[in-house]
Design a protein that fits this description.
Two copies of one chain form a homodimer. Chain A is built from nine helices and 14 strands. By secondary structure, chain A is an alpha/beta fold. In chain A, the strands form four sheets. In chain A, strands 2-10-9-8-5-3-4 form a seven-stranded mixed sheet, with helices on both faces. Chain A has a three-stranded antiparallel sheet with strand order 11-12-14. In chain A, strands 1-13 form a two-stranded parallel sheet. The mean pLDDT of chain A is 97. Chains A, B: It is found in: Cytoplasm.
């Protein structure tokens, strides 16, 4: 019996994807080989990574001057790699402090360049996206965390600025269509919306890469290295790429990014409607900035909270406890989350009778 | 029907390990969850990584002052990360040029520090390990590539020096017992001897970490970050760690590192004996430095070579073509390679009748 897993990431994938991935681990396409024992340079694997790349290009309708890279290290590594590649030694970038991942981005970028923190949502405990701020003239790009996984807030409209956006999109990559031309770099770890932990998809708008930088980027972290080698400069994590391919095929078969967005909105609306209706619960973020991927909410008292957690646990719901800094509950509903699981959770909220 | 896969990496693992890994991808320990959808901070996964760590400690009998890290990025990333962590801005390290991976190490280290190349085997096309050289007094450590995967040469005795060794052990990690006290850092990608691509095991001798360095190592690449966070500073590639755990359990059940060494020697001796006996083939490396993991050999003519490749392909042997710079054949026989596969290959060599 499958659990209903609302974990924030690594997160659930459709059962059929896990099953296909498991089958290929034992015998890939009746080849007598596991997909994981095939060389990253063998034609069979090169086909896998090329198909994954072309599906990302197709789903996002990427222009030719965008490159798709498959790299290890997660979005956390890109928080250092992106400034290294985009900023000279005396350059600066700008960022809005939207929460946990914005703070990580600020810390990582400050080790490498000047950082302008334009505004912070800390005064309201990161329950909203700050929208009123001034961009300094010297900022080379604006870093945005498109969705703050921990606080459950999301940009539904990206800031209108004249410089490129660099986006950590780990928690909403491939969850809706995008006007990619406004972005310089987009990166996302796979383990939320399109795979398992171990691979990062990086979209590089080659128009924003500096031609002459006074910073010497080590070869292993230079985007040019991986563009020139089509992500095969070193052994790419082959199996995580394969699982990403299976998810990309699944996303396309579902109907692409517009359909992913429809499903995200449908799932999260069902849950937020119950949060707003049910007098035992309340949402944490302001409504206009609520994330459609991570719904953060709390119960009317700590006592009711622990009773509901226990009730969830008895009824096959896992991964719903909120992050310690926020508390309460967090229900993560990425691409791989079935509507049936959200319906199950909402039914539990309706049925739940705390003993007060 | 399983193929006999002699690929240099990603490489074959025991069928039972692939099967266990596939089962856990669909349903981990009858939990109703895939191992890949469990949070890296959940107790179920923390148990996985802690067991993997303690098995590495046990197999290598690591002293307390060694830390075991699980990091993304492969050994190639460590070629930059190790010098960043160990060397100040004006420090130098030494290295012997033993082949492809030594050259990569030299290039990566030169971007960060002074590199003394002590000796090179290039004049003899990297068919041997240079053993006569002088160590400069200012070298902080000696980098060694314990086994050169591409050229098929291996250190059977490590150099006797008074400074720590830093070893890229990707192709012979966990393949024999080791006197770890002579090493400062040991790192290895998993996809040869103990798992699938996507995770790197790094052993850090904390005695060699500099206390005050004038180099500011970015947090994400600072060994101290990952020591303090027990490899969970960011989302570790959970599934590759799980597969590594299965391989570590398998290695222990086989009898540990002494038994891995016995098996490696038995497999490679069987093959080298046939290479030396059979007038159609000849070994490439000098005998005393031959790798027990990667046997490089060629046929007496290009014509015979392509006929034998074809014969292998018709008889379920794959991954045996040599690297372009070396040519000929390369049979890789890591921990996961069954003796039966080597016996099968040797029998093919005996049966092979080229049409001349």
């Amino acid at each position: 019996m499958r659990k209903h897993n609302f974990s924030p990431g690594p997160a659930t994938l459709p059962q059929e994807v896990f099953q296909q991935a498991a089958d290929a681990l034992v015998d890939f396409n009746h080849s007598g080989l596991s997909i994981a024992e095939i060389s990253h340079r063998a034609p069979e694997f090169v086909q896998v990574i090329e198909e994954a790349t072309s599906l990302v290009r197709e789903l996002y309708q990427l222009p030719d001057y965008f490159e798709v890279l498959w790299l290890p290290g997660g979005a956390s590594t890109q928080l250092a790699v992106a400034p290294m590649n985009l900023l000279g030694l005396n350059d600066s970038m700008a960022i809005v402090d939207t929460g946990f991942w914005a703070l990580r981005s600020i810390d990582a970028a400050r080790e490498l360049a000047q950082v302008h923190v334009l505004e912070s949502a800390s005064a309201t405990h990161y329950d909203r996206i700050p929208k009123a701020w001034n961009l300094p003239a010297d900022a080379k790009y604006l870093h945005v965390v498109s969705n703050e996984t921990i606080e459950g807030i999301q940009y539904h409209e990206y800031p209108q600025v004249d410089i490129p956006l660099v986006a950590d999109m780990t928690s909403d990559f491939l969850s809706k269509p995008l006007d990619v031309d406004r972005f310089g770099i987009i990166f996302a770890s796979a383990q939320k919306n399109f795979g398992i932990a171990g691979i990062t998809c990086v979209l590089v708008n080659t128009k924003v890469l500096p031609v002459n930088s006074d910073r010497k980027v080590p070869t292993i972290w230079d985007y040019q290295t991986h563009i020139q080698n089509q992500s095969l400069y070193y052994t790419v994590p082959t199996y995580p790429v394969y699982v990403a391919l299976l998810m990309l095929r699944w996303i396309k078969a579902q109907g692409g990014l517009r359909e992913m967005q429809n499903q995200s909105v449908a799932k999260s609306s069902l849950l937020y409607d119950e949060i707003d209706r049910n007098p035992l619960f309340e949402g944490i973020a302001v409504k206009e900035d609520r994330s459609v991927l991570n719904a953060c909410f709390r119960a009317i008292s700590p006592e009711v909270e622990s009773q509901f957690l226990e009730y969830c646990s008895q009824n096959d719901v896992v991964g719903i406890k909120g992050f310690p800094t926020v508390g309460g509950f967090r229900a993560s509903m990425y691409n791989g989350m079935a509507m049936e699981s959200v319906q199950h959770l909402v039914q539990l909220m309706k049925n739940f009778k705390p003993s007060l």
